[in-house]
Amino acid sequence: MVDKSWVHLCRAGPAYEKGASEFVRDVAVALGDANMIVCPCIDCRNIDCHVCNVVVDHLVTRGMEEAYKSRSDWYHHGELNSGLQGETKSSQRNEEIFGLYKAAELGDVEFAINDYFGEIAEGEDKKEDEFLAKIADAETPLYPSCVNHSKLSAIVSLFRLKTHNGWSDKIFSNLLETLPGMLPADNVLNTSLYEVKKFLKSFDLGYENIHACVNDCCLFRKKYKKLESCPKCKISRWKTNIHTGEVKQGVPQKVLRYFPIIPRLKRMFRSEDMAKDLRWHFTNKSTDGKLRHPVDSVTWDQMNDIYPSFAAEERNVRLGLSTAYRSHNCRIYTLNIPICFNM
Ligand SMILES: [Zn+2]
Ligand SMILES: [Zn+2]
Fold first, then answer.
1. Helices (H) and strands (E) in the chain — how many of each?
2. Would you kindly state where each structural domain of the chain is located, as residue ranges?
3. pLDDT tens figures, 154-178
4. Rounded distance from Cα 223 to ligand 1 centre (Å)
5. Number of the ligand closest to the Cα of 217
6. How far is the CA of 70 from the centre of ligand 2 (A)?
7. Residue 41: nearest ligand to its CA?
8. What percent of the chain has pLDDT over 70?
9. How are the residues of the chain apportioned to helix, strand and coil, as percentages rounded to the nearest 5?
């Protein structure tokens, strides 16, 4: 694999020139110490050949042709064409989600094992056994001869459809009741929404319910955790029966659903494919002046200028916040990844 990281560096810097020289040298060596090689600069466009020094000069002074630069295979310089990559991408998505869930589980076991160290050694074995049983259950084929889906991948795929298309719990329950009848008799698809939610929850990617003041003054957490009414507007935390005026103790007027972000980020980095996607922004900035992703924006560059040490580490996570007032949705996006994953 030819090192391509240099091609995205500033052409005025010594690192770019060093990268270009090494690249040209390696290509020439691979061609049996050739004197002339195909020049990938914006003018020669892999059509004209020049002696090695001239190719380096062209790369430094003119830059590499944009389309060639963004290719993963520099096929004019001895790399194999890998045209299949795009086709397999979508089928990889399920694998990635599966990897994420699996990573979530591995993470929990690691934490659990760390907790147990120095305490009870047998506890470790028990936890390990439970974990292996859970993974085995999740990896069970959907039905014995099924090669495309495990129990986990099937449930995750269906749940994605539900969330992406806004299906109600009722629609989803009906689908779950119908599907097993269409599958071979010994399938392992859970048949109720409750079971499916319980199954997913066992991988600990759930959310926290936090009670909120009905007028949005405060959240009933930390020092307000035990209050019965809002400290500012004095409105009751609990619902009241509209007919009798009786307070329904324990039934909150408003609930905030909070999806903790840190465990999610940790898990994304534990999944091999997602960890790769989280570094996508670093090498995929648009080079033709077109805006396709926040990474191509002026604001992104301004942030990089203000925080150069943050910008230098490709694994640093950049988050975007979006709100939709009417639905009271407040979402945080990871801007590191290709835009299609955030849709
Ligand atoms: Zn050239
Ligand atoms: Zn209030």
1. 13, 8
2. 5-77, 90-201, 209-252, 278-342
3. 888 888 888 888 888 899 889 998 9
4. 67
5. 2
6. 53
7. 1
8. 79
9. 50, 15, 35
